[in-house]
Protein 1
Amino acid sequence: VEVTDQEMQETIQRILESRRKEELVARPAQEGDLVEINFESRIEGVKLEGGDSKNHPLIIGKNKFIDGFDAYMIGMSTGETKEFSICAPSTHTRKEIKGQQVDFKVHMNAVYQVTIPVLDEEFTRSIGGEDLQHFIQKIKEHIQSQKEVDEKEKFHSLLCETIAKQMKVEIAEVLVQQEIDKMINEITHTLSREGL
């Protein structure tokens, strides 16, 4: 199983980000910062179901929320409140806001500067690795192993699906009747227990 450069880069980036350092700062938020916000969202004055959150973590620039939302966080300071509107794209995952103008009220609770470590010998030793080359080799082996497991599961699933489609089994009428009788007895028992 071949491991691509992109898979290696994505895996290494996830490892580096998992070891990030966050430092509370007293400056306006900027790209790459982790912020904690309280927010409310409405459409035409009506609160969105599940559209409010307290102490919500957000890394500015990752665009994990709604397109354009992150840009409004830039320049906000701790304690500041801002109101703005964004037109949700027609491709948004929540159908009730697709193509709708969503009004937000955001309060900035905290701003953290995020520092992501550099992939080097020092980082490798800090997480218990021998050296950088060994670390990269271990990552590659892990990705290969995971891909092999995924391939086996995919093959097994496809095999079962193919067999199931081609199998023709006659079920005896007596078995069907026994299952129906069993279900009726269970329902009767449940109803009688509840006094119905």
Note: The mean pLDDT is 90.
Protein 2
Amino acid sequence: MMRARKRYRDERGASLVEAAIVTPLLLLLTFGIVDFATLLYVNLALESGVSQATRYAVTGNLMEDPDNPGSQLSRPETIKAAMRKATPTLTIPDSAFSFSYMPADGSSWVAGTGGPGDIQRVTVTYEWTPMTPLIKPFFPGGKV
């Protein structure tokens, strides 16, 4: 009986058990914070990029074609280039962009880029996947 009592009072290995319990929780918390910060960064970058792209859409300015000096990009390509220039760390495919505009005297949205002075709407669809496995189930399809 005395031997059993001494064995239960022995605290060797207690730190290892505590570390085994706390480490996964600490890692989950750390990666959750990183995921949340990345999500905020992507959101702010997209907002800034769409703002820059919409400025080009409203003014009608065109960028010079980097592949063909002396010529200019088309209106939709200029808007996409402005968006990509404002968000260099994000890879945005051409299929992610959609354009619509409302003529100055109109009351409904029309597909396309319109002209200078029209009310422009630039929509960019971007999917972001969290890296923390326990956060993915909170979003439909595991993507934001």
Note: The chain is about 45% helix and 10% strand.
